[in-house]
Amino acid sequence: MPLLNSAAAIASEATAWRRHLHRNPELLYEVGDTAAFIVEKLTEFGVDEIVEGIGRSGVVGVIHGKGAGGRAIGLRADMDALPLEEKTGLDWASQRPGQMHACGHDGHMAMLLGAARLLADRRNFSGTVVLIFQPAEEGGAGGKAMIDDGLMERFNIAEVYGMHNYPGIPLGQFAIRSGPIMAATDEFQIIVTGRGGHAAQPHKAIDPVVIGSQIVLAAQTIASRMVSPIDALVVSITEFHAGSTHNIIPDQARLGGTVRSFTPENRDLAEERLKAIATGIAAAQGAKAELRYKRNYPATVNHAEEAVHAADAAIAVAGTDAVDTDFGPWTAAEDFSYMLESRPGAFIMIGNGDSAGLHNAGYDFNDDALPYGISYWVTLAERRLRA
């Protein structure tokens, strides 16, 4: 089943949907207009059941195939935009100041809407396709909110699949891997409290700037000396705030940064070592250090069997040479990770061609990718739910 003729036939309509969504971005859970547009289209396509308000503002559409009963699989697209001022100058640029679809969620929705239209028309499967339109991927953990709201149990989802565009992967190509494909993302602050004083008399002070600097350097050994070089771990200190003038040693310094990891063991190790390094260095010089560590999204880990199913569907659409089955892993994070913790499934990348990067004010989703994504979703659903 190569690129579907029916997907190509609705590409212009899908482009119109995508550009409408791009003009009207919304943030986090406040996606009322977006959800209403999704509901309007799903209703128009003859989707059997539409449920709103899952995970506060998510939308779920249900399409039944031939025959009664059977398994259900979930296909997910994210809906929210980013708090960013668009600088593309395109005719379909955002009409909402300070809000922009700079991660391609508009394209993700358009591809899943296209698949919904074809699946509702074809019904060439046995079982149920559950279309998941999720809010608040960009930091709001909307995937977790939908799961906590009973998404998987309510719709009897046995497997769940997601897709994300990737600038730099050529148009018409896909990329996937078994195991960790995207990182867990954590954030931290280190507060170093010393004793302020005159900069000309440092011996009478306990300098948190010097101590903080030593912590910055020592933290680099977590990834380079405490983790196997075969593993991937990122510990980046990206903030250092201290003092207000040239001749005063401050009382306090504040450091901040991020940790990216792919295994629970390395995630735990990074937190433990950051605390030990900060408190140990501070204590050695008569100061105190406090670590405030916040765990955000877990790693996105593809299940082995489902990753094969996803790759096979992509190969059926694009051809063997157009599907990289050993991609990444990528140190960005994605809250589809919560869905993969809840059910077996896989997350795949679709090429966006030579575009600006994600989360960039000059980014735009490549509309030429739409028929490939639509074909992938339809092929995957019909293969996993063979009639």
State the CATH architecture of the largest domain. 3-Layer(aba) Sandwich
For the CA atoms, what is the radius of gyration?
A: 24 Å
Helix-strand makeup class: alpha/beta
Helix content: 25-40%
Our estimate of the beta-strand percent is 25-35%
CATH superfamily (homologous) name of the largest domain: Zn peptidases
Distance N terminus to C terminus? 15 Å
Order of strands side by side in the largest beta sheet?
A: 1-2-4-3-5-16-6-15
Say how many strands there are. 16
Largest β sheet strand count, sense and barrel closure: 8 strands, mixed
Overall geometry = elongated
Q: Output mean pLDDT.
A: 97
Assembly state (oligomeric): single chain
What is the secondary structure topology, with strand pairs?
Layout: H1 5-9, H2 11-23, H3 32-45, E1 49-54, E2 58-64, E3 72-78, H4 105-122, E4 128-134, H5 142-148, H6 151-154, E5 157-166, E6 174-175, E7 179-182, E8 184-193, E9 197-198, H7 208-225, E10 233-242, E11 248-249, E12 252-261, H8 264-284, E13 288-295, E14 300-302, H9 304-318, E15 323-324, H10 336-342, E16 345-351, H11 370-384
Question: Could you write a compact summary of the structure shown?
Answer:
With 387 residues, the chain is an alpha/beta fold.
Question: Could you list some keywords that capture this structure?
Answer:
387 residues, alpha/beta, Aminopeptidase, Alpha-Beta Plaits, 8-stranded mixed sheet, 4-stranded antiparallel sheet, 11 helices, 16 strands, 35% helix
